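Q: Convert this sequence to structure tokens.
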Amino acid sequence: MPISYGQTYANQLRRRRARPGDKWHLDEVFIKINSKIHYLWRAVDQHGNVLDILVTSRRDARAATRFFRKLLTGLEYVPRVLVTDKLASYGAARRRVLRSVEHRRSKYLNNRAKNSHQPPRARERAMKRFASAGHAQRFLSAFSGISPHFRPRHRLGAQDYRSEMTIRFATDLVIVRTTACGVVAAGWAVVVVLALLHWGMRKTGMSRSGPMMVTLATRASTSALVWLWVPLVTISAMWLAIWVRTAGSGVVGSSSRVRV
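A:
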């Protein structure tokens, strides 16, 4: 899955999920990028839902403060409790940003956040590590939102697991349909605009007698129409076939933690 589409997909999932819990578990681990140590900050709630991640080159109070502000900007609510290890940077950042929030510091209480590092570690090994800090930030931001969606918590019975996965795959279908519809509509809009531009220039004779820029614009629009027409028709046909094939699928059931 391309990173650009993956981030769009992850954002759609976050908008559809229920509001996360009010108890935040925060932790940081080191990742090596181009032989340099970087730090991956991660926050999860008491249910194991990943709230956000951040990749930085330092592990000081400034980096922790930046992570706290990123969390507050994305979630738009203040937690009831913060659970961290005994890193002093968390305390300094809390005093700057979340002074009124209760702060619990213990390495034994933060297993929820530490366990959430395992899937990204596995992906890091499979990808032979990351190319840059920006690459790690973009990939892990999308991966942290998508991976838990298809991996519900293991303490579910068979019937509850099937019901939960039915809802989650239905959400996946809605997001894919919406994204594909937007891409196809945008492509056809571009083709229509270029066709109208090309037709107007040929109608008025500006493409032959007009200035050089108008002639170049006409040639560019002609080339764009030729190169866009066939791929866009192909993509539209594929999207229509997928839509018809999955027309019988719908959103069934309900869940307190997954909303469609």
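Confidence is low (pLDDT under 50) at residues 249-260.
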